[in-house]
Automatic annotation (TrEMBL):
Residues 2-75 form the Sm domain. Binds specifically to the 3'-terminal U-tract of U6 snRNA. Keywords: mRNA processing, mRNA splicing, Nucleus, Ribonucleoprotein, RNA-binding, Spliceosome. GO terms for molecular function: RNA binding. It is found in: Nucleus. Belongs to the snRNP Sm proteins family. Residues 88-143 have a biased composition (Gly residues). Residues 80-149 are annotated as: Disordered. This is U6 snRNA-associated Sm-like protein LSm4. PANTHER family: SMALL NUCLEAR RIBONUCLEOPROTEIN SM (PTHR23338).
Length: 149
């Protein structure tokens, strides 16, 4: 679970941000970006010593200054559920699924040896995964040039 995915899921929720200089900011997350720069609303800033407080309608914090973020536990559970539902999406991620991902043998020849299927030796094809990027053994041309047997 990446910190940025947690931060994006925590949008509009209350959080505590501690900076490297010791100041803390309590507020509701309004926006964040890829560099972890964040914008908070209804902010209460506490000094490093904890003796001074400031109330601000909103504030922008640069991501490189952030030391610590405290977000509600429900956000962590929400992201975990989201990731498990996304990972069980049929196995069609990068390089997986039915159409053969990157690499693999491209139709005929192969490298010799066993291919994992009985009866096929050194002339084995690419197995049943197809080759390269073109799907079932076609290579990269989308079936324009049929595979020679």
């Amino acid at each position: 679970m990446l910190p940025l995915s947690l931060l994006r899921a925590a949008q509009y929720m209350p959080m505590l941000v501690e900076l490297k200089n010791g100041e803390t900011y309590n507020g509701h997350l309004q926006a964040c970006d890829g560099w972890m720069n964040i914008c908070l609303r209804d902010v209460i800033c506490t000094s490093r010593d904890g003796d001074k407080f400031w109330r601000m309608p909103e504030c922008y914090i640069r991501g490189t200054n952030i030391k610590y973020l405290r977000i509600p536990d429900e956000v962590i559970e929400l992201v975990k559920e989201e990731q498990t539902s996304n990972s069980s999406g049929g196995g069609r991620g990068r390089g997986g699924g039915f159409r053969g991902g990157r690499g693999g043998t491209r139709g005929r020849g192969g490298r010799g040896g066993l291919t994992g299927r009985p009866g096929l030796g050194s002339s084995g094809g690419g197995g049943d995964r197809g080759g390269g990027r073109g799907g079932r053994g076609g290579g990269g041309r989308g079936g324009k040039f049929p595979r020679a047997n």
